[in-house]
Write a structure and sequence with these properties.
279 residues; alpha+beta; Jelly Rolls; 9 strands; globular
């Protein structure tokens, strides 16, 4: 797996441009940043998981009657440890949130022919903070296959992350459909109004949703319980912190005044706020 991570970090100028577009429009697209070898390997693992875990289709219009989702990817296969810390995408996340952000959830989505358009929604809809707000949730949607107008590329409402409310049933604002080649990444603010498109093609559309949140928020998926500790032991230090084995500002998330990373790595640093206050 390590050789799949041998990728040049995202260019600073490109990262700055993408962050500017996210701030202004609520979304941005990075073209062809995922190596084809990695993308093909991920698609193979997704297909294997769909079969192994007998993933069903969704049971309502939101989840999609022709759509299948594999949740909790980090507990499924070690290859899925790659996307959350990928050097071609994580720098954008850290610029918009900060270096102490968390991975909120990691999900594979397969939208099949005949899938209807998904209702508009915002991914931070379960949080109760006022709107508009600073960006507390940021998503990196990896295109594992092509995203096209015909196969259901994601609809986005530019600038809607700055609105004072979430979308409601019956809202029909002007939206655009994101089309991007396999290997590209759609970044979007968690407050952005968006939804999957209608798949009118004869091919499926597959993506991986990397959902990140600010380090002081509760994660969408309870990573500490969802991922077996024996698997976390083999995570990179960065990924451990992303799933919650760390603290925010040396305080939030501590265990008996210690960094919880020591639960999986006794040699981990424990630079806590109490030590800083006493200096």
């Amino acid at each position: 797996m390590s050789e799949l991570l041998e990728n040049e970090p995202l260019d600073e100028a490109l990262a700055a441009r993408l962050c500017g577009e996210i701030e202004e429009r609520g979304y941005a697209v990075a073209e062809n940043v995922i190596p084809s070898e990695l993308r093909e390997a991920l698609l193979d693992r997704i297909d294997h998981g769909m079969q192994k875990f007998e993933i069903p289709f969704g049971e309502n219009a939101f989840l999609g009657h022709q759509t299948r989702r594999i949740f909790n990817l980090l507990a499924r296969d070690r290859l899925f440890e790659t996307p959350p810390v990928f050097p071609g995408t994580l720098p954008v996340i850290e610029r918009v949130l900060d270096s102490e952000c968390l991975l909120s959830s990691l999900t594979a989505i397969e939208m099949n022919p005949g899938q209807a358009r998904q209702p508009l929604h915002s991914d931070d809809g379960s949080y109760g903070f006022p709107r508009p707000s600073p960006t507390y949730v940021l998503v990196a949607m990896w295109a594992i296959t092509d995203f096209t107008e015909e196969n259901g590329g994601t609809h986005v409402v530019p600038g809607s992350h700055l609105r004072e409310r979430r979308p409601r049933r019956g809202d029909e604002p002007e939206a655009i459909q994101v089309e991007m080649d396999a290997g590209s990444v759609l970044f979007y603010d968690g407050s952005l109004w968006h939804g999957g498109g209608e798949n009118r093609s004869d091919t499926r559309r597959v993506g991986i949703v990397n959902n990140y949140c600010a380090g002081f928020l509760r994660q969408e998926e309870n990573q500490l319980l969802a991922i077996p500790k024996e698997r976390v032991v083999n995570f990179s230090p960065r990924l451990r912190r992303l799933v919650g084995y760390g603290t925010y500002r040396g305080l939030l998330g501590h265990v008996d005044q210690r960094n919880p990373e020591i639960l999986v790595d006794p040699e981990a640093k424990t630079d806590m706020i109490w030590g800083k206050i006493g200096r």
